[in-house]
Structure formats: C-alpha cells, structure tokens
Amino acid sequence: MDQHIVTGRFEGRVAIVTGASTDPGIGTACARRLAEEGASVVINARGEERLRGMERTLQAQGLAVVACPGEAGSEGIATRLVDAAHEAFGGVDLLVNTVGGVPFVGSALDITRDDLLATVGLNTWPALALIQAAMAQGLADRAGAVVNISSGSPGKTTPTMAAYAAAKSALNALTRTLANDLGRRGVRVNAVSPGLTRTEATRDIWGSDGGEAAGRHILLGRLTEPEDVAAAVAFLLSSDAAAITGVLLDVDGGNHVDTGSWSPFSPNAIGQAGGAPTASGPRAV
Questions:
Q1: What is the pLDDT of residues 67-80, one digit of tens each?
Q2: What is the model's pTM?
C-alpha cells in the first residue's frame, strides 16, 4: 500500500468508477486508491472478462469491490451502475468518470460529421448520464462528489487532435456548469486533466523503453503515472476538498505551462517515443 494513502479517509463511502479494467490504467488506479482508503467501489468497463479479472484481483487484495460490466453511455447502463452500488453497498456517494477516447486522429479538414459527434459523445455523455442517474437516486442526499477525467488537449493546438480537444473542452464546460447547478444541492463536481500518462491505452508511446524517451519531453522529466491521477482524484473527492468545486486540476508533469511544442500525436514524434497511437484505440483518456 502506498505510504501516502490516508487509511480510512473514505470509510463508509461508496464510489462508482468507470473505465476500470486495465492495468496500468487511470480508472483502475482510482478504484484501487479509493478502496485502499476505505471506500466500497463499483467498477465498470465494457469488456466483461477483463473487468471480472480486475474484480478478482482487487478483491484478493482485501478491497471491497464489485464489478458491473457494460459500455458506459449505452442505454440503461448508468442506472444499472447506480442500482449495483445501492444493492451491494447501500447507496452511492462518489463518482469517477474516466471513459473517453480518440476515435478520430487527423486533421480537422478530414473529419466527418459522424467522427466529430462520436468523439464529443464518447467524452461527454457517459459522464453526464451517470451523474443524472446518481442524482436521481440520492447523490445529493449523501453530499456527493464527482470527478471527471479530462485532458490537457483543450490547452494545446495539436492539429491531429482537434476533435478530441473539442470533446474535452465540452466536458470541461459541463463540469463547471454542473458544479454551479449541483453545488446548490450539496454536490461538488470537479475534473482532473492528465497529461501523457503511462496507461495500457498509451503503451504504443512508452512501451518500448518504459517511457524514458517520452518522459524527457515532459517538464518534470517523467511521464504521469495512473497513481498520480488517482491521488488527485482522491483529494478532490475527499473532505480535504470540501470547499472546492468547478475546478480543472492539471496532473501532467507541468505540461500545461511548458512552452515546448512536442506532442506524441505529432508526426515528428514518431520514432522519438516509440511511435504515436493509432485511431484504432478509442478508449484512452
């Protein structure tokens, strides 16, 4: 267990974490961190076999975790997740929305209407649907808190990531607007914006050397780890952040203040960090 974990900080609290079946992965790291700090956690992902495997792994570590498979954002899954939390643990207090991705990588001149709408939908609707379902079943009654996983892309102008940047910009706007709306009902809504993170979805970038080459382009000299993101998420969900809502917290090794122009999605990055990811992996955050 990480020495920085605050044991019992989430004792008696119930969390739902989407996109939590891959390791290394942001969703899995968040679920593990919350459970290690005392929360009971419902984990979700679209691939049932891998999700069940993660459920077994976390339970074997003595953590209170149950799996509820299904594609986040699909019809009825948000309600199923909230129902699962109520049935297994008696309610829901905390939401971590990690589902997102890059269905289209390329110039905005080449994107189709369907590509754009699919990208925006993937990065916004699963989070909003889960928030709606949780609010309908008492999230406000339990002084709930929500963290959405965004991206540093809206702050960049990488030509191949126009659709993704637009989608995460929409998620950021939703986060701030929901913070205003739900704050009056006692629910806090924040977002974490990771930089290039060492996850299964980005393995094409860091897998050849463990991220050493890509990390050299980051201001602090290393890639962001899923556990870095999970630590920020846990803080924003905790009572330590009781007066914080509507913020976007960058967890990116300083990338948002770096004046460098390197991007793993730029053509000139291919070969410098193991190659750029392809458009075939639509579930990265």
A1: 999 999 999 999 99
A2: 0.90
